[in-house]
Structure formats: structure tokens, C-alpha cells
Amino acid sequence: MTEIAARDLPRLTLLLGAGGVGKTTLSAALGLAHARAGRRAALLSVDPARRLRTALGLAEVPEHGARVALSGAAGTLDAALLDPSASLRRWVAEASPDAARGDLAANPYFVALADRLAGLADAIGCVRAVEWAERDPSLAELVLDTAPGRSAVELLARPDKLMAFFDGRLMRWLVRLARLGPARRGGRLLAGLGDVSGTRTLRDVGELLSAIEAAAGDMVARLERARRWLRDAATSLVVVCGVSDDAAEVAASLDRAVRDLGFAPSLFVLNRALAAPPGWTPLIAGDAPAPGHAFARYVRSYLRTQDRVRARLGAGQVRVIDVPDGTLDAPSRLDALAALGEPLREALEPRGSSAARRRRSSRAA
Fold first, then answer.
1. Which of 75, 9, 13 lies closest to 44 in space, CA to CA?
2. Which of 184, 191, 292, 310 is the most buried if burial means most Cβ atoms within 10 Å?
3. pTM score, whole prediction
4. Distance between CA atoms of residues 205 and 84, nearest Å
């Protein structure tokens, strides 16, 4: 496995927020904006709702990643939708081809273990992100679209939790058993299982032990890198908030939760913000003709809520930016999406850090 020095890691940006605030759309928009700016970017979604396909207008976004065709872009964007079980099976197949040839997907013990680990999807996402950085050293930006609400905070804590799982008694016992030769205690135990449950059980357990022995070490090493990466000074935590009091409450809750874990948001994004165009002042002020009263009331209410939410977000001394609602209709959907992500990309650029910008640009495709 390739060792990555901190200075060689791509810049990591995590987007967090309540469900329905446009977090996945903004994640896609940011990835596309990076590509438009000449960067080599990657976008990984761990959101179980799997909205990334809709956001990018694609029929399929595979677990192993695929290139997003953005015409005229100086950089590139690859996108992947996390499938924890598929990732685990792929890692096992790569680390232990012999076990994979034994139709591991049909092994009930491996399926049970994969399902157990797939419940830690956020941690698997961390492993997947580190794997991506290892395999593409030229990667300059990696955008991580998290699960909605407080579940996103688990991603920041899961590396420790999954490492604790691998370090637990059961896993230590299984790995130790895998290392025992057939003539020693492990072989006798497996033979006993075969006598009790038949040779199928013997084969299934043997395949499982081989898989664990081959793949667990790589996963633990990547989790350790993920822990350091998440706490790197260049990593950004972006909290996306919609124009509603409920979304503001979730954003405030996320702020408290990430601070409790020793992190801090880098930026708040007020998504789908409304900027009243010229000529609307009479309408908003209440001087509109009678037919426009209903719409005027809606606009005034929306702007009041928007001001209230923005003030609440800004109370935490974290920068707040507005991202307006945009039209993403085909055939220029990806171009429109890239334009939507540009204010966010610019807000995340290090201030006074031209050397860092040159370094990332030099690693773009």
C-alpha cells in the first residue's frame, strides 16, 4: 500500500446538512466547479438516499467511480456512490484472490460480516476516500457528500469506532485462528466444525478467515490515515442550511456536535437564498397591486425567514455565504451546476495562500 505524506493528500471537503437542503446537489456543484477551475477532482457520496445520480443527471454512478463528462473543462471530475458491501468485496478480492475465487459473495459468514461492517457506512466511506487518494496521486480535490442530519457527524467518529471493531476480541481471535496451520489448533477446530456442520461450513469459515487476514490490515491502515486526514488543517467542514427554521436548528445541532468531537465548521452555506431583483421593492414593501398580494406575502415571508436563519448561522463566528437557487435544466445542466458551485469553491480557497493554490493546480490533470 502506498504511504501518503500529509502534504501529498488532496484537499478534503465534507458537506453536512439536514435532509432536503440541497447538500448532494451542492457537493456535485463543488466537484464540477473544481473541474472547471482546472483541478483534478473526485466526488464520493455516502448518502444512503443515493441522490448523486439525480444531481449529476446520470443513469448510474458506480462504486468504483466514473468520469463525469464536462465539456470544455480544464480539469476532471470522477464520481462514485458508496456501496459498503461492494467495496468490502472488492477489497477482499484484491487482497485475497484465492478467497474471491471461492465465490465469497455466497459465503454466509462473509455476508454476515459484510452486513455488520456495512452498517458502519461512514467509516467505510473514509476507507474508500483514502483508497481513492492512494490510487490517484494526482488528485487535487476530494469532495465527500455525507449522510443527512446528525448521521453525518458519525463520519468524524467512525474511524475510531471501526478500528475498535477490528481490535475487538472476536476479530483478534479470528485473525489469530487464520494464522494457525492446518496441523495445529486452528486446523483441529475447523475440522471439528466440518464434522458438526459438514464440509460446507469448513470451507465457508476458511474463506472468511482468509479474507479477514488479507484485507483487515489494509483497512486499518487506511482508517488511521483517514483520522489524520480529517483533522488536517486543509480539510474543510461545510454545513449546508436551507431557508427554514428547522434546517437552521439542524445546522446549529451539527455545529455543536462537530465541536464536541474536536472539529469546527469551516463555512456555513445558506442554500437557495433569494436576492430580490431590481423593481421588486414596492412588491416586498407591500405596495403591490391586489393581484400580487399573495406572491408579495410569500416573498416577504421568505426574506424574513432568510434573514433570521442567516443571523442565527452568523452568530457562531463562522463565515456564512449565500448560494442562490439555480436552474439546472438540460442540456446545460452540468454547466449550470458548475456555475452554482463556483461561489462555494471561491469561499473555500485559502486566503493569502497562493503557494498552496499553485501546488494544487500543478497536481491537476
1. 13
2. 310
3. 0.80
4. 21
On the question of pLDDT at 323 being above 70, the answer is yes
Query: Amino acid identity of 69?
Result: A
- Amino acid 349 reads E
The residues with which 238 forms a beta bridge, in sequence order, are 15, 267
The rounded distance, in Å, linking the Cα atoms of 57 and 24 is 12
- Rounded CA gap, 347 and 358, in Å? 17
pLDDT of residue 70: 86
Bridge partner list, 294: none
The residue type found at 147 is A
* Measured distance between the N- and C-terminal CA atoms of the chain, rounded to whole angstroms: 23
The whole-angstrom separation of Cα 261 and Cα 46 is 20
Using alpha carbons only, what angle is made at residue 270 by residues 30 and 142, rounded to the nearest 5 degrees? 20
The three three-digit cell numbers of residue 92, written as one number: 477482499
Chain segment 97-147, per-residue pLDDT in tens: 665 545 666 666 666 766 666 666 777 888 899 999 999 999 999 999 998
Q: Give me the DSSP letters along 321-353.
A: EEEE-----TTSHHHHHHHHHHHHHHHHSPTT-
Residue of 53, 71, 55, 54 whose CA lies nearest to 63: 53
Cα–Cα distance, 299 to 182 (Å, whole number)? 75
User: For residue 216, how many other CB atoms are within 10 A of its CB?
Assistant: 19
C-alpha grid cell for residue 274? 433569494
Q: State the cell numbers at 330.
A: 438540460
Q: Name the strand (E) or helix (H) holding 12.
A: strand 11-17
Q: Can you name the residues that pair with 320 across neighbouring β-strands?
A: 268
Phi, psi angle pair for 144, to nearest 5°: -115, 115
Q: How far is CA 37 from the centre of its chain?
A: 21
